[in-house]
Amino acid sequence: MASIIPSRLLVLAFSLLLLLPSFSLAHQRRPHHFRGKRDKITYHGGGLLTGNINLVLIWYGNFDQPTKDTVKSFIDSFNFDYKGYHHSQPTVAKWWNLVENYQSAAWPRGVRKKSKVKVIREVSEQCYWGKILTMDFIPKLVQKAVGGTPNTVAVLFTAKDVAVHGLCTGKCQLHGILKKKQPYIVVGNSEIECPGSCMWPFHSSEYFPRGGVVLKSPNGNAVGDSMVVHLASGLAELVTNPGNTGFYGGTKYKPIEITGGRCRNVFGKRASAKKGRPGILRYAYGGKAFNAYGKYGKKFLLPALHNPKTRGCTTL
């Protein structure tokens, strides 16, 4: 079962981390500091999500099947058995291992617990709550979809004609903890609302000179592939900073999380986030860009992460 472990019960927390089969919010008292060249990522002693990550996918509005398939193939790639795919490296699982390294960084003497990320339910929801979603409605939508099922992370995807308050203004995904300790992620569809902000590098950017380098999406579905980028960011940041008391730099009110700061808009080595160069990548037939292999040879483009061991920005 999942549990929330207060810092004063540290000994009990370590015991539970070894026993619980589902995710939990585990704490460490002493902060640790990890510095990159520009950002400082600090562990603030709060909760991290550990154990299995059981996802409830909420499709809000009308989605085409290829977009759904792209997202679900990415999620299935976390636990895929890559035996027999020795030439398909690096993998989505290797990228996730970088995220799990934050547990080792928080608890240097502890035992890192491997987690499985899987979908346990899907819900298709028409626009009953309207086409402009705010944080007044999102908790109700999540509560209805989850239905009281414990140990879940709700992931809300919105269709292209739905706007989400708080997205497209420096953020392309939202995450956190709602009441009753319910973790959530919101991933918007930027096809119409803000392609110049949240669909790069599969669409020209309004922030880079000449729009930056525009790439062909790895699965030929710019909407689905950009959702994968933001879902990956949301999962990584939710696990390492679920309640804004885990790993982050900057300030509590404007945190820099592990896919942000100097790692934002970085996908490969020798990237230039200021000039709109995503970095050195791999290319499939037709010039489709990717940096990670998924199940059955599927390909994805995943964001760079602040690495607590190298204290820099790590790409696949």
Automatic annotation (TrEMBL):
Subcellular location: Secreted, Extracellular space, Apoplast
KW Transcription (keyword) present: no
Signal peptide bounds: 1-26
Keywords: Apoplast, Secreted, Signal
GO cellular component: apoplast
Database matches in InterPro entries: EXORDIUM-like
UniProt-listed Pfam families: Phi_1
Domain of life of the organism encoding this protein: Eukaryota
Homology family: Belongs to the EXORDIUM family.
Protein name according to UniProt: Uncharacterized protein
Phylogenetic lineage: Eukaryota, Viridiplantae, Streptophyta, Embryophyta, Tracheophyta
